Amino acid sequence: QVQLAESGGGSVQSGGSLRLSCVASAFTASSYCMAWFRQTPGKEREGVARVLPDNQNTWYAPSVKGRFTASRDNNKNMLFLQMDSLKPEDTAMYYCAAIANLCPDMSESAWTHWGQGTQVTVSS
Predict the structure, then answer these.
(1) Which residues contact 109 (CB under 8 A, 6 or more apart)?
(2) CB contact at 8 A, 3 and 73
């Protein structure tokens, strides 16, 4: 059974950095598209970054482009999100997502596997 587990969240001041990690089990990462989403209470889960299996093509949400860098290590079945220049509006629960054999759009319903999330809090 595919499992995803995020780590690396925490509290940081505005302008600071955090690096999130997601380790995947029970699948071959090179066959899966992987992504980061985030969610705040009362709002829909929104896509942050999507990394194709070849690790060469990455999509970013406009709100994070230039500040966040997503990458993956298929040998270790891991996905990363380096978050720099953090802002209070980046505060959210961050989720790792994966799907086999295709890379869908960044709507929550299109992704089949999810982690439990890691909380990121940015104070002003």
Answers:
(1) none
(2) no
pLDDT tens per residue, range 44-55: 999 999 999 888
CA distance 81 to 79: 7
The rounded distance, in Å, linking the Cα atoms of 83 and 76 is 21
Span 7-65, pLDDT tens digits: 999 999 999 999 999 999 988 878 899 999 999 999 999 999 999 988 888 999 999 99
Determine contact, residues 49/63, Cβ cutoff 8 Å: no
In the structure, how many helices (H) and strands (E) does the chain have? Answer: 0, 11
Determine how many CB atoms are found less than 10 A away from the CB of residue 8. Answer: 16
- What letter would DSSP give residue 65? B
Quick check: 20 and 7 in contact, CB under 8 A?
yes
